[in-house]
What we know:
This protein has 94 residues and is an alpha/beta fold. It has helices spanning 14-20, 58-71, 82-93; strands at 2-6, 25-29, 48-52, 75-78.
Amino acid sequence: xxxxxxxxxxxxxxxxxxxxxxxxxxxxxxxxxxxxxxxxxxxxxxxxxxxxxxxxxxxxxxxxxxxxxxxxxxxxxxxxxxxxxxxxxxxxxx
Length: 94
């Protein structure tokens, strides 16, 4: 499984935690203001998109939402807390 993460300058232990629960590919885009908004590419092989709301430019939200809908990929909006991320992943899986 593959996960696309937008936001946050670094992932810390989140990448390892995602791999432990079955995501073998983690792709990360920082999502700051300098991010290529129009050219933001969501990998089509992504099974899930995680958006760190505290660390992403507001204008990126709409772009991600639109593209995820086009590819039918679920999105999780959360802060950078592993407890919340894992909780939302489990809720999305059910």
